[in-house]
Amino acid sequence: MPPKGFCARMAALLGPAEYDAFAASWERPRLPSLRLNPLKGCPPGLRERFGLTPVPWTADGFYFDPAVRPGLSPWHDAGAYYLQEASAMAPATLLDVRPGMRVLDLCAAPGGKSAQLAAMLDGRGLLVSNEIDPKRAAVLSRNLERMAAANVLVLNEHPAKLAERFPAAFDRVLVDAPCSGEGMFRKEEAAVAGWSEEQVAACARRQREILESAAAMLRPGGRLVYSTCTFAPEENEGVVSVFLLAHPDFSVAAVDAPWFSPGRPDWVSGPAPGLERTFRLWPHKLVGEGHFAAVLQRAGDEPLLGWDSGRPAPEPAELRDFRAALGLPLPPGQIFSFGKTLWLAPEGLPPLRGLKVLRPGLELGEVRKGRFEPAHAWALWLRDCPAAVSYPDDSPEIAAYLSGAPIPGEARGWTLVLADGLSLGWCKGSGGTLKNHYPKGLRRVIR
Ligand code: SAM
To answer: 83, 181, 296, 384: which could join 224 in a potential S-S bond, CB 3.0 to 4.6 Å?
Structure first.
């Protein structure tokens, strides 16, 4: 049950008739949703098996039958989709990202929206995906690996530090801000337990700081989306209003999104112009949880400055031999080593010195004792590999593979394992057995 103070505030804001509809929405069963990953492709039969119906505002978003468990399918391990709440798909959709852009996701873990942004970039341009909390940053990095995002730099930094480092450096910025989570009361008990009016005020202060840093990183002519999953006007229209009044070069863009309700300038004092063009997603008006999003446009039109990405390393002979044996071309980007690991940096990677970097592009692998050992990330990224074995997702071979067991097979050397044509990981064949190279930390038993 939501906190009393929250209910009283919402009743006063919405009035009795709408408040009743709003409160009734907490009792309605939730319809779960997922976003298909175009970077991997959709395995045959998935739509029918999961009973998919479209989320109206996001091309790859679908509700699924609550009786099915897509998170348990090997297709999930292969990155075919990301389980993402339908309203949470809106902010990245509103950001209007196109291939080739330089995009920043400032508060990115666990990564649903970053994965969506990476899919919109379609391998071209750069996504900088940042998370302040180190443990959450590690989860973000793993999720982006699973979702086959290659042109991504994953960082674990404070927004203020990034703002110093990257002034006016991005075409698009997403601020999916930490908030009091009132829109999640239906979904998460923890959001109810942690709520207080003081927490709402503290969140609003922090959001204003984060938005300042974010805005400093947007180029003139660029677009920024500020979003929360809370209803509190202080954290939504309030934060945006204070920001707009202090930054006359920003305005609320007019975006056509008929599924969403207008923001409420009448809920804050001395509102900045344009707040009615922000969006509220109400659980009693659409099939999804509560959210808020504001699309902010920065005036002007300045191109991005290039970054000096340093000199690429030559391709090591061990990697060349590996590629030749498997018939693999080198993906676009430039090779460099970071510690013992070889990476493929996306075009236009910034200098990384002094930054806490978890993932600087696509991890290729390591040279060990004169031989190349391919990384799991590369396996997940690959869509075409001549040296591959494919099994149905419900086959004993895929169950064995995900559990870490060897599988019988005549392939020789490094081979890609596919579930219904979607890459899942590496194995290495010799003498009629495919030795398992699925990462230990990801292994699981399929029932
Ligand atoms: N965009 C994410 C997604 O789609 O999966 C969800 C982001 S969540 C709403 C907000 C994130 O902001 C959390 O991961 C939290 O750790 C992070 N955060 C907390 N305090 C922060 C701060 N001061 N600056 C930046 N991010 C912060």
So the answer is: 296
| DSSP element (H, E) containing 380 | helix 376-381
CA angle in degrees (0–180, nearest 5) for 93-306-342: 85
Q: Which residue has the tokens 């929250």?
A: 6
Question: Quick check: CB of 210 below 6 Å from ligand 1?
Answer: yes
CA angle in degrees (0–180, nearest 5) for 284-289-290: 80
What's the rounded Cα separation, in Å, for the pair 310 and 293? 37
Question: In which band, very low, low, confident or very high, does the pLDDT at 118 lie, cut at 50, 70 and 90?
Answer: very high
Q: Residue 50 corresponds to which tokens in the numbers above?
A: 């999961």
> 249-260 as b/e, with b when 16 or more CB fall inside 10 Å?
ebbbbebebebb
- CA 86 from centroid of its chain's CA atoms: 14
Marked catalytic residue, from 107, 203, 229, 427: 229
Of residues 232, 273, 235, 282, the one with CA closest to residue 254: 273
Query: Per-residue pLDDT tens for 354-376?
Result: 999 999 999 999 999 999 999 99
Q: Which among 97, 106, 157 is positioned nearest to 129, based on CA atoms?
A: 106
Q: Give backbone dihedrals phi and psi of 27, rounded to 5 degrees, phi first.
A: -85, -20
For residues 3 and 27, give the distance between their C-alpha atoms in angstroms, rounded to a whole number: 15
Output the DSSP codes for 259-303. Answer: TSEEP-GGGSSSPPTTGGGSEEE-TTTSSS--EEEEEEEE-S--P
Question: Quick check: 32 pLDDT over 90?
Answer: yes
**Residue for token digits 């660029």?**
222
Residue 113 burial by Cβ neighbours in a 10 Å radius (0-12, 13-18, 19+): buried
Confidence at 189, pLDDT banded by 50, 70, 90: confident
Distance between CA atoms of residues 28 and 150, nearest Å: 39
Confidence at residue 328, expressed as pLDDT on a 0 to 100 scale: 94
229 flagged as catalytic: yes
- Given pLDDT bands bounded at 50, 70 and 90, which one contains residue 306? confident
Check if 112 has its Cβ closer than 6 Å to any atom of ligand 1: yes
Distance 106 CA to ligand 1 centre (A): 8
Handedness of CA 366, 372, 377, 381 (dihedral sign): positive
Dihedral class, residue 238 (left if φ above 0, else alpha if ψ from -120 to 50, else beta): alpha
Enter the tokens of residue 314: 């030559």
> Which of 132, 142, 182 maximizes ligand 1 atoms within 8 Å of its Cβ, making it the mutation to test the pocket?
132
Distance from the alpha carbon of residue 28 to the mean position of ligand 1, in angstroms: 28
